[in-house]
Amino acid sequence: MTPYLYDDDTRHGWRRPLTWSALLAIAWLVYELTAQPVLGAVVVCAKFGWDDFVTAVWLRRFDVDRFRGRACSWFYLAAGLWRIALTATAASIVIAILQGVLAIQQNQGVGAVLWDVFGAVGLESLFAFGLAALTTFIAVGSAFRCRVKVWLDRQVNVARRKRVWPPERWGTNRAKTLLTATLIPVVTLLVLGLVVGSIFALEGFRAPQRDPPAWVIVIVVVLQLLLTVSGALFVLVVREIVSRRVVARTPAECWGHSG
Fold first, then answer.
1. Per-residue pLDDT tens for 155-176?
2. How many Å apart are CA 216 and CA 213, to the nearest integer?
3. pLDDT band at 249, cuts 50/70/90?
4. How many other CB atoms sit within 10 Å of the CB of residue 201?
5. Region 66-71 average pLDDT
6. d(CA 249, CA 259)
7. Contact (Cβ atoms closer than 8 angstroms) between residue 257 and residue 156
8. Which of 65, 124, 140, 152 is the least buried, fewest Cβ under 10 Å from its Cβ?
9. How far does CA 33 lie from the centroid of its chain?
10. Which sign does the torsion angle of CA 137, 138, 142, 148 carry?
11. Is residue 38's pLDDT more than 80?
12. Is the whole-model pTM more than 0.85?
């Protein structure tokens, strides 16, 4: 092994794992201050991305190749944000359902409760996924600029915790999955926007108290199908093009002889 990436100094507090008790205490404080259980769920779910966050800082500070460290750190930061976004959204939906059940049992206004809770869930999800997607785009741009091919592997987290390099064994590269996770919601929102636009355009053909011509409906339906298929193809094509430039096929392609 060639231990050139790890740090022997164990005094850094940011490297210590977040404990569930600390997160639950912070989440409860957030809930007491905001009365929003969804925000508390987001705090708790920070646990799922913390390991990737620490690895991102570690690579940026201690990788002997500063360009590689910078590019890879952005990818690990994005991976952590995606973990938090997914788990926080799932937890928030469960909380929303539980609040709806409690509202029914207590004979409260279920509609108002669900509207408030799911509104908060929607805003939280939009912010979380938007931030994760933005960070992924920055990561790809950094890899392009630094001319680095990235190997995103959980074994790097394990190696950091054990302070050994290279890792005792390599896993699979998650960078391509990260690209897919970013492209799908972005393209989906774009397609939905175009579909909604076509529906409004259809309404423009509607005469007062008359249905639009059949040929207009056919055109809109065909357009929606084409947009859906084109969106799926766009995701696949862009993912492959970007992957060839920034995703390593082997650990050695990213980490050199140490991989």
1. 999 988 888 877 878 999 999 9
2. 5
3. very high
4. 14
5. 94
6. 12
7. no
8. 65
9. 27
10. negative
11. no
12. no
